[in-house]
Amino acid sequence: MLMSSVVMAALFAASPAPKTQPLTWKVTGSDVTFEMSSKDLRALRDGKEVFGFQSRKKGFLEDVTPAEDEERDTSDWEALWAFDVRSVVGPWVSYEEANSGYTGGAHPYAHFSYVTVDVTKPQGKFSLLDVFPEKDVLAALKADGFVKKHIGDAEAFKKARTVEAMLETLEPGEDCVGFRYGLDSVKRSVAFHHLEGGKVAVRIAFPYDNESCRGNMFVVGVLLPIPASLKPVLERASSRQEGFLMKDAKTVKAPSIRFEWEGAESKKP
After folding, report:
1. Which residues face 113 on adjacent strands?
2. Neighbouring residues of 61: CB distance < 8 A, sequence distance ≥ 6
3. DSSP calls for 50-104
4. Region 182-208: what's the mean pLDDT?
5. Residue range 51-89, pLDDT digits in tens
6. Which of 204, 247, 199 is nearest to 224 (CA)?
7. Whole-prediction pTM value?
8. Which of 262, 242, 264, 267 is nearest to 252 (CA)?
9. Are 169 and 152 in contact (CB under 8 A)?
10. Is the model's pLDDT at 17 over the cut of 90?
11. H-type helices in the chain, by residue range?
């Protein structure tokens, strides 16, 4: 006798939903394995975590929570630390980081940036200028329309032979771009977007110039010729065999992580 559709529907409804397994992949030529879920991205070496987001939550809460003997009213205090993963190329993880809130003082704070870390290096050390020829990065930045709008000294801009020297010729402009802090941005505040005609599209995030324009971030896109040594790893990321590029972050459901904290009223005696 066939089971009625009502009974079958009830049985399926009662069955627990299958748990989503983390997406995992091993980086070719290394001992690094990545695990990615909707709530975290972790890098493991010999089974031990060397990079992760959720493991940062404890430190965040310790940093923002006032001491137990704090008597001030902190009910209007709040803090947010957030991460949106943008790309994973070989051992390089690129993400957008947001820090904002109010924890006393004259005004709230807000800072947004891209960050790239190399999970195989101490403190995640990474520099775009170590993996791409500086002359190519310089040429791409000089050709960018947004950069050219901020030229302060045209002759010095033309003659600049290093990224640092070129950035020194730029002005913040009305939009308040922090080019004077730009060398660190070019080195590390990057994400890898897509491949195009033998080049890779790289996004570089520049900060704001001063506190009056806090909270702004300015993203410049450049196309860089791909060195032969990087071609295989970028192609594996582009095809999502190992990692992914920024263009596919939504498709692979790259995680967005949020840590939030709110203050409390002062303790009554």
Report:
1. 97
2. 259, 261
3. EE-SGGGHHHHHHHHSPPTT--S--TT-EEEEEEEEEEEETTEEEEEEEEEEE-S
4. 97
5. 999 999 999 999 998 887 777 788 899 999 999 999 999
6. 199
7. 0.89
8. 242
9. yes
10. no
11. 5-14, 57-64, 128-131, 134-143, 145-148, 154-159, 163-167, 182-188, 231-238
